[in-house]
Amino acid sequence: MAKDRRRDFGQGLDVGTSFVRCAESCGREIVWHSERNAFIDIEQYGFTEAILTRAQVEYVKNGDQLYIVGTDAMVFANVFNKDARRPLSSGIISPSEKDALSMIEMIIKGLLGKPQLEGELLYYSIPGPPLDAEANLVYHEKTLQGMLQKLGYSAKPINEGLAVVLSELADHRFTGIGISFGGGMVNVCFAFRSIPVLTFSLAKAGDWIDQNAALAVGEKASLICSIKESSLDLSKTEGVSKIDIALSICYDRLIEYVLDKINKEFEKTVRIPRLPEPLPIILAGGSAAPKGFVERFTQALRKSNFPLEIGEVRMAKDPFNCVATGALIAAEAEEGVGEEAVLPPPSTLEEREPELSS
Question: pTM of the predicted model, to two decimals?
Answer without folding.
Answer: 0.88
